[in-house]
Amino acid sequence: MTDIIQLLPDHVANQIAAGEVVQRPASVVKELLENAIDAGSTEIKLIIKDAGKTLVQVIDNGKGMSVTDARLSFERHATSKIKSAEDLFQINTKGFRGEALASIAAIAHVELKTKRPEDELGTAIVIEGSKVKSQDVSVTPTGTSVAVKNLFFNIPARRNFLKSDTVELRHITDEFHRVALAHPNIAFMFYHNGSELFHLPQENYRQRVVHIFGNKTNEKLVPVEEDTEVLKISGFVGKPEYSKKTRSEQFFFVNQRFIKSPYLNHAIGAAFEGLLKTGYHPSYFLNLTVDPKTIDINIHPTKTEIKFDDEHTLYAILRSAVKHSLGQFNIAPVLDFEHQSSFNTPYSYKDKAGKAPTIEVDRSFNPFSEDTQTHKSGTSGFSKVKKAPAAHWESLYVGLESKENNSGNDFSEVTFESDPETAKMFDDTHVESRKPTFQLQQKYIVSTLKSGMLIIDQNRAHQRVLYENFLKHVTIKEATSQQLLFPLQLHFTPNETKIIKDLKSELEYTGFVFSEANEKEITITGVPVGVPDSEVSIILEQLISDVENDVPDANFSASDLLAKSMAKSLAIKTGQTLNQMEQEHLINSLFACKEPNMSPANKPTFITMSADDIETKFL
Ligand code: ADP
Ligand code: MG
User: Fold this and answer.
1) Residue 8 φ/ψ, nearest 5 degrees
2) Could you give the CA distance from residue 362 to residue 457 in angstroms, rounded to a whole number?
3) 3-state class (DSSP) for residue 44
4) Of 141 and 344, which is predicted with more confidence?
5) Which of 34, 73, 99 to mutate to test the pocket of ligand 1 (most atoms within 8 A of CB)?
6) Which domains does the chain have, with CATH numbers?
7) Residue 434's pLDDT band (boundaries 50, 70, 90)?
8) Please, are residues 605 and 460 in contact by the beta-carbon 8 Å criterion?
9) Would the CB of 95 count as within 6 Å of ligand 1?
């Protein structure tokens, strides 16, 4: 028998290797971005078409390549980053295996353009399925551009295996996040099908995190800093109350490389013990720096797993550092000190100029007159009650109609007529509401009434205000929406996605704009005015759990449930400090509601204590 073993030709070997390195467009993105970083670039552009299926291009301003290096870079095991086996334990670059470009060129059409700063002219190379099609001298800026087209053109099975554009783009975005987070000192731009998805300037780490995950992330972050002999930690964990049902905000970087480590993840979980609801995961963005000698990166082709020499020590240090930070920032939800200084109403009332309260006195008003019609603002005995405070708060409160728009709307009168008790209370409150109010235990607002004392539950009261507001939008089927700078992609289980889809039109009437949805992801491009991006997932998660827990019966109304749920998510919480204006504003808004005395969940929003009640206490 003749010998049967033969060496595979290079292009076949490359294709096999490619199977390991390149699973999907996102893998190409990762490899090209990493090469750009290794080249010392300060600005990197990522350009994608059709979720990378048609084009993945990375343009950098790094050190470029010589003519020979440009050609060699596509050879397998061709690398400038290590020279000997010892170097494997001193790795300071992202790449070192010299496989990426060779693998990519084996399964796609690749166009490379590169120029070193010291050269006048650069080099352009075109390679298709490992075959060099052309090599030319080229006029090109300093740096390197690698365009990868028609990925898997010669492996139809792999190409067919690719998921929808949404899914592939999600993978690319994940890779982009990881690389961009690890290198805040590099500017990144990311375009998909001609539109800019990210524009990240050179910035510090906190700014980078906030830039990627939205402005509201800023107040979620608790810094973690630790410097020991074996491990340096810097970065942030999210406050427990912002924990998520998904693991989408969990990032470990070891020596600026994103890694997955269930073991270290566990250390964080241990530090958060007792602070999280079941099924919720903490957010973290942590940079670990260790001596490169103490880790082995070369255990996985995509290098997302690494081996630490002394995992146990790292675990202990990490856990205690995170625990310490959480403790220091006193993360109990009711004592959120950071919130106090930056009180955040979901309506843009903060930006409005304060308005000195004015008291309008109707000099012709005669309390003994039977004829209430003579009251100048009233068309009925009850509407006057509604009118006066409306005039007072309309300029402050964005979103609720003033009385002017409301006139002719009969339910306000119906409500008051059917509930004279409320009307009386309201009248009373209105007259007295300019008296100083104060906040009790960051939970209640206390004010005076003619007849005694008024105690308002701030959370329930605000829920009522928001609930009526949302309900109104849903009912009249119109809302103003604010477009998001970066579309939000949220992950859900298929079941959860279905719930959201079923409520889609109601959600849209409140101001949400959905661009895409598939089984597990929903992309949101617009949110109701005044709703911060960071609240969106909280609102939807709350909504899902409300729907799941609410056995739909005959009275089930999707819009009502939605309005309740959103009000619950966005209302001022117990524990939030309110200043004088905010307190007054809330009181006025509450009593401008149709049913001020009950929260959407039918719990009292306020109680009163008459002077007599108080007196009996002193007996
Ligand atoms: P590795 O990154 O593991 O070295 P690659 O196949 O990704 O292997 O790249 C091969 C070589 O090509 C690199 O070692 C580097 O010298 C060169 N190279 C690749 N991309 C760039 C780039 N954007 N700028 C400069 N040189 C690059
Ligand atoms: Mg590389």
Assistant:
1) -70, 140
2) 32
3) strand
4) 141
5) 73
6) 10-200 (3.30.565.10), 205-328 (3.30.230.10), 439-608 (3.30.1370.100)
7) low
8) yes
9) yes
